[in-house]
């Protein structure tokens, strides 16, 4: 069984996702919280419902250009995506990418992917992705290897 602080941590994290992630992931978070609450003993459920740990309002989130559920499915399946992208200056490009991570920040979301055009790992702001098409092709490297390489390059410790 969960300890009280573990319940608070789960509830706080899930409430942040429900409020700050894209719609599909937010709905999944709310469903997960309801399922957790349903199996808790009544005293822990009451404590979770009465938690004083709150998710405060954040800056408005820059709208996503595409449905991030498509990106998440590609990440899970290690599938390539074809994207149309506009950089910060508005220049358009077509790319085939190997998405392996999504970053959720307070104001925006970022897809981390190997870009075949550039031959390197690149960061793509979700609000600048104009269109995305899931491809049947799997990418030739494992997602975990790409993630490890990216973390090392960025100086981000594994968790």
Model description:
This protein is α+β, with helices and mostly antiparallel strands and 159 residues long. 40% of the residues lie in helices and 28% in strands. It contains 5 helices and 5 strands, in the order H-H-H-H-E-E-E-E-E-H. It has helices at residues 4-20, 23-39, 42-49, 68-77, 143-154; strands at 79-86, 92-104, 109-115, 120-125, 129-138. A 5-stranded antiparallel beta sheet has the order 4-3-2-1-5. Strand 1 and strand 2 (92-104) form a beta hairpin. Helix 1 runs antiparallel to helix 2. The protein is elongated and about 55 Å long. The two termini are 23 Å apart. This is Helix-turn-helix transcriptional regulator. Residues 68-133 form the WYL domain. Pfam families: WYL (PF13280).
């Amino acid at each position: 069984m969960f300890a009280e602080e573990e319940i608070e941590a789960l509830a706080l994290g899930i409430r942040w996702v429900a409020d700050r992630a894209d719609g599909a992931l937010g709905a999944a978070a709310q469903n997960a919280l309801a399922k957790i609450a349903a199996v808790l003993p009544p005293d822990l459920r009451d404590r979770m419902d009465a938690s004083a740990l709150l998710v405060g309002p954040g800056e408005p989130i820059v709208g996503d250009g595409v449905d991030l559920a498509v990106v998440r499915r590609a990440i899970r399946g290690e599938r390539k995506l074809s994207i149309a992208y506009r950089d910060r200056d508005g220049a358009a490009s077509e790319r085939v990418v190997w998405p392996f991570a999504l970053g959720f920040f307070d104001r925006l979301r970022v897809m981390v992917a190997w870009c075949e055009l550039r031959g390197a790992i690149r960061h793509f702001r979700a609000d600048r992705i104009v269109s995305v098409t899931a491809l049947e092709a799997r990418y030739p490297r494992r997602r975990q290897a790409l993630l490890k390489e990216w973390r090392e390059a960025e100086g981000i410790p594994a968790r």
